[in-house]
Amino acid sequence: MKRFEGKVILITGAASGLGHAAAMQIASEGAKLSLVDLNQGGLEEVKQSILSSYSEADVLLIEADCSDESAVKKYVDETVEHFGQIDGFFNNAGIEGKQDLTEEYGTDEFERVVNINLNGVFYGMKYVLKVMREQGYGSIVNTASVGGIRGVGNQSGYAASKHGVVGMTRNSGVEYGQYGISIKAIAPGAIMTPMVEGSLRQIGGDDWEAAGKEFVSVNPMKRFGKPEEVGYLVAFLLSSQADFINGAVIPIDGGQSYKY
């Protein structure tokens, strides 16, 4: 049985990494997809990957800057105009930003990271929740991070933004459960995505793979997670099987967040 047959799922940050992995998994289960990213070329590649495996898939691509409120409203409106509904929303677009001590962390960089990771998530929830409340149902999964439930060094903007995502998730879960809407967040740890590779290159330069081995050495499972492992979790959380999970933040980090 396909859990998303007849369902419309909206995914931001869909051109790579976790968004791509979730789109592939959800497409395999019959969903109609609205995929949003600033990288139009990446979106086209994801669509081709989906159609090469699931030729009957219905995929809408929308190029948008998720830190721009008017662009967010537009991608929500376009999705509803095209499909008539939004059953699930993977509110995933985000960046890591530069790494530096807090005293050296640039104000412009802090604002850039927060605008994308926190404001963008807020805008997405704001406009999708209006649609879902009118429908009387829906499910939202926000992308937080291990950095949203514990400290991470040299990432003031990222940690602040992801802690904010956790707070919004819990608060909105309290507000919207009465309307048949469940809202949760995932907190990924070291998942091997282009964003994580970029982070390792900041740390290790040309020797970034060695930096990666040191990075996962603190993980009880001693390895990176795979994007598809996150895709499986997101698909479950967006499905009706997870409707009673509301306001929760679910780590997917090999146990990293529980190790002291």
From TrEMBL:
Chain segments annotated as transmembrane: none
Alphabetical GO biological process terms: bile acid metabolic process
Record Pfam families: adh_short_C2
GO molecular function: oxidoreductase activity
Keyword Mitochondrion on entry: no
Family affiliation: Belongs to the short-chain dehydrogenases/reductases (SDR) family.
Protein name: Oxidoreductase
